[in-house]
Amino acid sequence: MFSQVGVFTSMSLPLHSRVADALRTEIADGVLAVGSPVPSESALCERFEASRGTVRAALGTLRNEGLIAGGRGRPPTVCAPAVAQPFETFMSFTAWAQSIGRAPGQRTLEVARRAASSVAATALGLDPGTTVVDVLRLRTLDGSPALLERSSFVESVGRKLFDFDPDSGSIYAYLIEQGIDLHGGRHTIDAVLASDADAAALDVDPGAALLRERRRATDSSGTPLEYADDRYRPDRVTFTIDNTQSTHDLRIVKEIS
User: Fold this and answer.
1) Thinking of the domain 15-78, which architecture would CATH place it in?
2) 3-class secondary structure per residue, the chain
């Protein structure tokens, strides 16, 4: 039944896992090149003698791994391999993208003074209802949507952004130029489902899985300056954590697919 398929790791695996393994191997070997379309569902069904549901499950696995991208009626294509980001540029999307030779972009959706949300107020150590400056930006890599940024800055920092064009580049670089002591950050990474607003901005289906990075940026004294809730497309960006037993150091790297 499987002589035409190629390499399978184990015949005991479910068929959708074996289909995913075969396609994964072809991507790794360059048989399916970066940017090339994945064979159609009907072609894969015929090749693997599998149902459409089995093929869709296999493609879903590869999509979740960031090996292919596509959806909302578009055929899937093979993604570029991941590139690691050093921790020292972790807080700046612009610096990271430029360091790996990719073109960062941004489109500002909102800059506004408003009462802090309960989550932001807690993270920033503010009383409920304290005014903050909220920023909502769509970030792109080589023109494709990759990240939806939601940041709440304490007012003394955020008000400086009303004299800055957030579409012109890095907010952090501008704030540092203005003398703001952006010293460190605490990052929490998990997964969430795309809301309707997330889906519209990032060009994914509502309910699609997104990587979320919640960040609290502080000055050198540990005073919170920003709370952020950033949503990444996992087919464009992934995270890897490296550590060593001898030094107990921890290094987080962001990768681009």
Assistant:
1) Orthogonal Bundle (1.10)
2) CCCCCCCCCCCCCCHHHHHHHHHHHHHHCCCCCCCCECCCHHHHHHHHCCCHHHHHHHHHHHHHCCCEECCCCCCCEECCCCCECCHHHCCCHHHHHHHCCCCEEEEEEEEEEEECCHHHHHHHCCCCCCEEEEEEEEEEECCEEEEEEEEEEEHHHHHHHHHCCHHHCCHHHHHHHCCCCCCEEEEEEEEEECCHHHHHHHCCCCCCEEEEEEEEEECCCCCEEEEEEEEECCCCEEEEEEECCCCCCEEEEEEEC
**CATH class of residue range 87-256:** alpha beta
Q: Given this model, what pLDDT does residue 253 score?
A: 56
Taking only the tens place, the pLDDT of each residue in 25-75 is 898 888 998 888 999 999 999 999 999 999 988 998 888 777 888 755 678
Domain ranges of the chain: 15-78, 87-256
